[in-house]
Design goal:
By secondary structure, the chain is of the alpha/beta class. It has helices spanning 14-29, 49-59, 83-96, 114-123, 146-159, 175-185, 188-191, 216-241, 250-262, 334-338, 382-385, 393-403, 412-427, 438-449, and strands spanning 4-9, 37-43, 73-77, 102-107, 134-138, 165-167, 199-207, 264-276, 294-301, 311-316, 323-330, 347-353, 357-365, 373-381, 432-435.
Amino acid sequence: MKKLMVTIFGSTGDLSMRKLLPALSRLIVEDQITKEIEIIAVGRRAFSNDDYRDYVQKNKNSDFDINTLKDVLTYYELNIDELSDYKKLKDYIDQKTNEDTVKLFYLAVAPELFPTISKNLGESHLVKKDHFNDRIIFEKPFGHSLDSANEIKKLLWQSFSEKQIYRIDHYLGKAMIQNIIMVRFANRIFEEIWHNRSIKKVQIIVKETDSILSRGAYYDKSGALIDMVQSHLLQMLSLVAMEVPLSYQSEDLKNEKVKVLDQIRFDQNVKLFGQYKGYLEEKDVHNQSKTETFVFLKAYVDTPRFKGVPFYLMTGKKLDVKASYIMIEFEETNEQRKWNLPLSTNKLYIKIDPLDGVSLVLNSKVPNLKDEVEQVELDFCSACRDVGNRVEAYQKLLLDSIEGHKTLFARWDEIEKSWTKIDELKKTNSNLYVYEDYEDLKNKIKREFNEEI
Ligand code: BG6
């Protein structure tokens, strides 16, 4: 295995504590990557290695043990505006690496810092153009709008080749998201009915119970639409709605996803933006902030396959449960109507979190003497089978970036199209509803749009 050097910008941030360091630790402990690894945690604070480890230990909120990284983790103080600091970092890294070493530079920072850091990485030759072992990974969101994303793209393409650029959407690293394609295309019973003659509606739901935690500075500039919909929810939608790709290869899949993103049309009359009560008192949030922590949207995909089928997208903080899933509801049969049976429908659930799996709701006769029909669920819980071995999304994505596999990373045109749609949506006014809890939102959606979620 090649030697590995992982440099993390934003190493004192929430993402590093909660996801990146734990994922790297598991990859090492489980022997998935070389033991010849060094992790450089870059930050502006004057920490010693011990200070940094103590900081992580205090701030992490998972069962990850920082001691598993003790021998490979170094803290490195750097001012991100100072080119000379990057040059010194290059000298440091050069001493420890050779031409074959895979060097990952992970930008776990807010998108407004992408240009400065990327420019300095290029100018200091820490990342050399067309050196495919030098890779640069961008956390989402990639920009704040189409314009800002375009600017970052231009700057990156001047200094690096597209092959060196990895744009993260950690939902693509989740097992069930990868499984959507298998469920659709490797099962005749679904493949045959995956169109608007059989599908009545689709719901794409990501509910969270947490608040914004300590991420006010980032979140208040983003909100749920940018934080979640532009990336995770639109990626899910495109996997559900895409045409049959030419092959199972990365580029073919992406070609089809892009076509879907291009055909999304939001229903401007059915949308709700909410903010949880107490948001304005959160740390680093502006005291009159209009940032949304909840979004409910209705959209259509204007392709022959899905024309007319409503797609409901919903995501928010401080809701009733933590749950991410896609629900595909099918049309009633003619017989249900003709024979005057209950009009309950078949539903396919693609469950992403917390327990991933697939379930299918069917109508079935109650085994009694009467002619009663009940809904039964065929449930496959993938997570229950893999207790303790569940691969975290960041583990999968870090491994893929180490191995140079780009399938699960977003291509530029996917980002471009999704920003186009989000920018369009933002142009129209939306009132902000301050919500108590999920019940409150459900009632509001029922009252205002006559929609059930
Ligand atoms: C991140 C968002 O991309 O996804 C967070 O920035 C959100 O605000 C998180 O909490 C949700 O991810 P998961 O994997 O916990 O569903």
